[in-house]
Amino acid sequence: MKKLLLVFGFLVVFSGAGIADQLTAPSLWKNQRGSELRITAVGANGSLRGTFTNYASGFQCQGIPYPIAGITTPGPTTFTVNFVKCRTVTTWKGSASIFGMPTEWVLRYDGQTQTGSDFFFRVN
Ligand code: BTN
User: Fold this and answer.
1) Cα(94)–Cα(29) distance, rounded to whole angstroms?
2) Is residue 88 within 6 Å of ligand 1 at its C-beta?
3) 5 vs 33 pLDDT, higher one
4) pTM of the predicted model, to two decimals?
5) Residue 8's CB: how many other CB atoms inside 10 A?
6) 69 C-beta closer than 6 A to ligand 1
7) pLDDT greater than 80 at residue 2
């Protein structure tokens, strides 16, 4: 009986942990490259307002907060940044949970495409 309860407990905890969350405002997120995602408002329809500041080494346009456009749902969250000065547009897509938000991104510059992953962890 004890074992059964333990297994049930694990199932509850780990199935719950897999459920994605909507982003909330205000919140501040950092990724593994040191870049910052600041969420200042979430609309009733999940629309996102905020800024993204790039600090990733090997990339340009560092330290400039650019506005984000995006949408957050209890499932996926997507946001786009137009790094105007660099003529680069990047879109991230991921799912937030209590552990953070793993994302995949697509960067477009001068007709070329680059892809990668960023993991965002909440800092505030
Ligand atoms: C550029 O170098 O053309 C503009 C800045 C791009 C920064 C990219 S976006 C994806 C990746 N994740 C980051 O935090 N920064 C880089």
Assistant:
1) 13
2) yes
3) 33
4) 0.88
5) 10
6) no
7) no
